Amino acid sequence: MVRFRLGREEDSRAPVEGWPPPVDSEGIWAIPLGDRNYRIENVPWFAQGTAFGDVVSAVEFEGNRWVMNGMAWSGHLTVRVACPDPSAVLEKFADLGVRGESAAPFGIAALDIPPDADLHAVVARLRAGGYDYEEACVTDEWRGL
């Protein structure tokens, strides 16, 4: 597991209220690749700018492996949906090849959008569903849709 420090406000602390929920760090499953490099093995619930399969560099500090920087992007996108039933959201996108992680206590479905996904279809479904979503790790192509 590697940990990401989360800073979302000017003073580098997580927000005390609102969405996403207030958290200071996130632990994410990762496979060691050697030389302090790790491949992310699940979809981040809170960390910005990272996605499933990305390779990151981390250092050991106080019993945790803290991510220092990203090294290689996997091509996957991460979009988080705020919702009362994250499992239902994951089911709505499964037929598009999108999988994800449910963070039910936080009311979040973290979507993992693979490189070969039909981005037009994913965005259309997000908009049609009226979902409140956050673009945590997306491309210029995604932003242009």
Q: How many individual helices?
A: 3
Beta percentage is 35-45%
Overall mean pLDDT: 89
Counted up, domains total: 2
Taking the alpha carbons of the first and last residues, their distance comes to 34 Å
Oligomeric state as shown? single chain
- Residue share in helices? 10-25%
Question: Would you write up a description of this structure?
Answer:
By secondary structure, the protein is an alpha+beta fold. It folds into two domains: 2-72, no CATH class; 77-143, Alpha-Beta Plaits (2-Layer Sandwich), CATH 3.30.70. Helix content is 16%, strand content 39%. The protein contains three helices and ten strands; from the N terminus they run βββββββαββαβα.
Summarize the SSE layout with pairings.
Blueprint: E1 2-5, E2 25-28, E3 30-34, E4 37-40, E5 55-61, E6 64-72, E7 77-82, H1 86-94, E8 99-103, E9 108-113, H2 119-128, E10 132-137, H3 140-143
Antiparallel strand pairs: 1-2, 3-4, 4-5, 5-6, 7-9, 7-10, 8-9
Question: What is shown here, in short?
Answer:
With 145 residues, the protein is of the alpha+beta class.
List keywords for this structure.
145 residues, alpha+beta, Alpha-Beta Plaits, 4-stranded antiparallel β-sheet, 3 helices, 39% strand, globular
